[in-house]
């Protein structure tokens, strides 16, 4: 069996997890086919400005369609809302921790939030106690702006280890201009039924700013945000010069599919792989991807959806963070659920 995968250390680690399950169940040798995607090759691009749909998946899908590979393994959060009509997501491995992790350079004071006083500066980068955060994700930036209204932002690219090294050094050389840090506008009025959604935070005024580069184009940075699942799969629990703080769903709604490894194949072969895949993860991710498909969102949109038991956590740049109850019927009709809830927020 041949598995198409990206070449990054994290992608290879995820592909090996799938390969191990395949080998154990089918008793056949498994070969990895590492590939460079457009998103990998264009390391200087701002994914937000260039557009992110399919940048990390298209080449893997082409290998499946041509017959070069039998499976493609993706981080589910990299998948666009709609994939090739010739292929299908057969399912997912059991989901790992879906949370994001705030990665702070050691010695940088933990920044205050809306509910706590802001500490005094402890770093030259922390002007008036504000934090310089490195992230190219509109989803993360929009939610960080809610937590840290005085923060400034810049782009950061590279694999997990590269990003950790940049933050530990205190400087990032972004793949493009400093990121715009426009915060989401004020949230609209709550839906007519009070129990339909809880606003987790009100949106801040657009006060955040882009970080300023020093001589040589380097931008001082204090922190970034990474996925907990990616850190765990790489065996990274600590890093010299850095502190890790997980963010709960009320602070940072994860990306659609975050923490899940997606297995993609040709439509007529999907049933073959069901025994190695996890129905509970598929149940949750189907709901999340229904919201992504309804909004047709990509890397340019500050949007997130995460299904956890009887709750759906939602973030959109126009509404801020919201939490909705999820019933069993909502899981059985994810497209209808997405349409109903997004319409209640005025997003459709």
TrEMBL record:
<dbReference type="GO" id="GO:0005737">
    <property type="term" value="C:cytoplasm"/>
</dbReference>
<dbReference type="InterPro" id="IPR000860">
    <property type="entry name" value="HemC"/>
</dbReference>
<keyword id="KW-0627">Porphyrin biosynthesis</keyword>
<dbReference type="InterPro" id="IPR022417">
    <property type="entry name" value="Porphobilin_deaminase_N"/>
</dbReference>
<comment type="function">
    <text>Tetrapolymerization of the monopyrrole PBG into the hydroxymethylbilane pre-uroporphyrinogen in several discrete steps.</text>
</comment>
<feature type="domain" description="Porphobilinogen deaminase N-terminal">
    <location>
        <begin position="1"/>
        <end position="170"/>
    </location>
</feature>
<dbReference type="GO" id="GO:0006783">
    <property type="term" value="P:heme biosynthetic process"/>
</dbReference>
<dbReference type="Pfam" id="PF01379">
    <property type="entry name" value="Porphobil_deam"/>
</dbReference>
<keyword id="KW-0808">Transferase</keyword>
<feature type="domain" description="Porphobilinogen deaminase N-terminal">
    <location>
        <begin position="220"/>
        <end position="270"/>
    </location>
</feature>
<dbReference type="InterPro" id="IPR036803">
    <property type="entry name" value="Porphobilinogen_deaminase_C_sf"/>
</dbReference>
<feature type="region of interest" description="Disordered">
    <location>
        <begin position="109"/>
        <end position="136"/>
    </location>
</feature>
<comment type="pathway">
    <text>Porphyrin-containing compound metabolism; protoporphyrin-IX biosynthesis; coproporphyrinogen-III from 5-aminolevulinate: step 2/4.</text>
</comment>
<dbReference type="InterPro" id="IPR022419">
    <property type="entry name" value="Porphobilin_deaminase_cofac_BS"/>
</dbReference>
<feature type="region of interest" description="Disordered">
    <location>
        <begin position="175"/>
        <end position="205"/>
    </location>
</feature>
<protein>
    <recommendedName>
        <fullName>hydroxymethylbilane synthase</fullName>
        <ecNumber>2.5.1.61</ecNumber>
    </recommendedName>
</protein>
<dbReference type="GO" id="GO:0004418">
    <property type="term" value="F:hydroxymethylbilane synthase activity"/>
</dbReference>
<comment type="similarity">
    <text>Belongs to the HMBS family.</text>
</comment>
């Amino acid at each position: 069996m041949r598995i198409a995968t990206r070449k990054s250390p994290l992608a290879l680690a995820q592909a090996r997890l799938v390969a191990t399950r395949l080998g154990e169940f089918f008793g056949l040798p498994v070969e990895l086919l590492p590939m460079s995607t457009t998103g990998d090759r264009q390391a200087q691009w701002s994914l937000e400005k260039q557009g992110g749909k399919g940048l990390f998946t298209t080449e893997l899908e082409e290998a499946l369609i041509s017959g070069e590979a039998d499976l493609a393994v993706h981080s589910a959060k990299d998948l666009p809302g709609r994939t090739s009509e010739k292929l299908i997501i057969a399912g997912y491995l059991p989901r790992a921790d879906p949370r994001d992790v705030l990665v702070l350079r050691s010695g940088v004071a933990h920044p205050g939030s809306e509910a706590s006083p802001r500490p005094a500066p402890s770093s030259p980068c922390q002007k008036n106690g504000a934090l310089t955060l490195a992230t190219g994700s509109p989803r993360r930036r929009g939610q960080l702006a809610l937590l840290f209204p005085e923060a400034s932002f810049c782009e950061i690219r590279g694999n997990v280890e590269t990003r950790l090294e940049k933050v530990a050094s205190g400087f990032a050389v972004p793949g493009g201009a400093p990121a715009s840090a426009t915060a989401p506008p004020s949230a609209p009025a709550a839906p007519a039924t009070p129990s339909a959604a809880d606003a987790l935070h009100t949106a801040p005024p657009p006060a955040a700013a882009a970080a300023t580069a020093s001589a040589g184009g380097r931008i001082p940075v204090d922190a970034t945000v990474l996925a907990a699942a990616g850190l765990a799969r790489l065996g990274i629990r600590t890093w010299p010069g850095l502190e890790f703080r997980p963010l709960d769903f009320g602070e940072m709604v994860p990306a659609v599919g975050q923490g899940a490894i997606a297995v993609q194949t040709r439509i007529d072969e999907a049933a073959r792989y069901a025994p190695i895949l996890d129905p509970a993860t598929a149940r949750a991710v189907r709901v999340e991807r229904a919201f992504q498909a309804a909004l047709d969102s990509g890397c340019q949109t500050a949007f997130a959806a995460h299904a956890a038991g009887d709750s759906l956590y939602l973030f959109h740049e126009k509404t801020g963070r919201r939490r909705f109850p999820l019933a069993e019927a909502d899981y059985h009709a994810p497209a209808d659920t997405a349409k109903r809830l997004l319409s209640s927020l005025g997003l459709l």
